Amino acid sequence: MSRFMEPKLANFQFAVQHNDNEKNIAINQPIDVVNWMSPEKMHKLFNESGNSNQVPNNQKREIFSFGMLIWELAYQKIPYSNIKSNDIVIHVTRGNREICDNFLDPENKVIHESFLDIIQVAWKEVPEERINMNALYLKLLELV
Predict the structure, then answer these.
(1) 98 dihedral zone (left: phi>0; alpha: psi -120 to 50; beta)
(2) Per-residue pLDDT tens digits for 6-64
(3) Contact 60, 49 (CB under 8 A)
(4) Cα 41 to Cα 55: distance, rounded to the nearest angstrom
(5) Residues 116-129, buried b or exposed e (16+ Cβ, 10 A)?
(6) CB atoms within 10 A of CB 14
(7) How many CA atoms lie within 13 A of 27 on its CB side?
(8) Which terminal residue of the chain, N or C, has fewer Cβ atoms less than 10 Å from its own Cβ?
């Protein structure tokens, strides 16, 4: 956030073109980004790939990570900050997620409920059940 309370996004080193269906990216410090990873990405990185730092990326995985970002903004803390980095992988790949309660503010109840809805459809265990980009865009547009 800027000093004028304007949100700023930075650190786009892992960004990919929107039209890329799947792209391999090098993750040198996966523990630094594990808090926002989808369960299937964690599984590929830490179980199937072993020491390989090349992990396929796709839109459904990014949707999950976006849900984590929305959660982080709503709760104003790093996801899974109370769990050790190594345990986050076990926690998430077993279907566990961050807790979604206690941030409903009477003044902003509609926005917070919309955030909850986005978070929950972004965090679906089965990637194909996660919200698609167009539906996500429309949900966000409703908040403006």
Answers:
(1) beta
(2) 766 665 555 555 555 554 544 445 556 788 999 998 888 777 655 445 566 789 999 99
(3) no
(4) 7
(5) bebbebbbbeebee
(6) 13
(7) 25
(8) C
